[in-house]
């Protein structure tokens, strides 16, 4: 049995990016630990920002984690930095906002968990934080440093294949002209940089259930959000669309193509 620690910024990030891999590893008998930096108390939702939303989202996270087979859930207790309308950093963020914390201090706290768990693997995000959320960028910075401190041997950047994503968005733009295809052209990771393509089709039911656990994030703001739209996709199509999860492991030779988080062929 090995131990994999999945480090995410907010509740629901695990369901969107790594849920299938988490369920697969747990099903194989590995220990899966989920760590979130914040409670996501500034996310768009029907509930107002603040403690009430943070509590609701942590309850949702624990429900998601149970479905995925997680052995432990840890919240580091930092404040959700929020997201400005233009996609940058919010000006009214809390004093303990994750984006403002000392990287070394936060990394030491995460490293303590990695050491306690004798983690064989930790997942973070790519340097741009996927789509650029400040807290996601901070996950990359803090997670990278924590792995160095703890000596965790495998560091995987959870991402999306940008080539596949842009093709899908361009197709969707035919029906939804308001979609800004250009905003996706620099998001996540180019296909040529991806080292791990993990087939999680056997675990898409668990992934979909994990997504559904985050009910506060299915709507909010101007209406249905990405997660809500994903949950309306018919099951056979959902299995195809969400049946692969992608990761980048730095330092591997160009052209590396692995099918398992621990590097198994």
TrEMBL record:
SUPFAM superfamilies with a match to the protein in the record: LmbE-like
Q: Pfam families given for it?
A: PIG-L (PF02585)
Q: Which InterPro entries match?
A: GlcNAc_PI_deacetylase-related, LmbE-like_dom_sf
The UniProt record lists the keyword Zinc: yes
| Biological process, per Gene Ontology | glycoside metabolic process
Native organism is Planotetraspora kaengkrachanensis
Recorded GO terms, molecular function? hydrolase activity, acting on carbon-nitrogen (but not peptide) bonds, in linear amides
Zinc-finger: present as a keyword of the record?
A: no
The name under which this protein is listed is GlcNAc-PI de-N-acetylase
Question: What are the record keywords, sorted?
Answer: Zinc
Q: Which domain of life is it from?
A: Bacteria
């Amino acid at each position: 049995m090995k131990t994999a620690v999945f480090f995410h910024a907010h509740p629901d990030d695990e369901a969107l990016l790594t849920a299938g891999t988490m369920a697969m590893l747990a099903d194989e008998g590995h220990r899966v630990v989920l760590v979130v930096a914040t409670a996501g108390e500034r996310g768009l939702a029907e509930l107002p920002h603040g403690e009430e939303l943070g509590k609701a989202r942590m309850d949702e996270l624990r429900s998601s984690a149970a479905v995925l087979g997680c052995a432990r859930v840890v919240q580091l207790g930092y404040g959700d930095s929020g997201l400005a309308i233009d996609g940058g950093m919010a000006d009214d963020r809390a004093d303990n906002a994750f984006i403002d914390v000392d990287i070394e201090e936060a990394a030491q706290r995460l490293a303590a968990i990695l050491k306690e768990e004798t983690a064989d693997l930790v997942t973070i995000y790519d340097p741009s934080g996927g789509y650029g959320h400040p807290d996601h960028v901070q996950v990359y910075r803090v997670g990278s440093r924590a792995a160095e401190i703890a000596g965790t041997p495998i560091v995987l950047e959870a991402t999306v294949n940008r080539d596949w994503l842009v093709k899908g968005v361009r197709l969707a733009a035919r029906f939804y002209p308001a979609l800004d295809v250009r905003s996706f052209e620099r998001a996540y990771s180019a296909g040529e940089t991806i080292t791990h393509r993990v087939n999680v089709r056997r675990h898409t039911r668990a992934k979909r259930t994990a997504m559904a656990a985050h009910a506060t994030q299915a709507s909010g703001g101007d209406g249905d959000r990405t997660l809500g739209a994903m949950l309306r996709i018919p099951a056979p199509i959902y299995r195809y669309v969400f049946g692969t999860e992608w990761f980048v492991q730095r330092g591997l030779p160009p052209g590396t193509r692995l099918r398992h988080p621990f590097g198994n062929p």
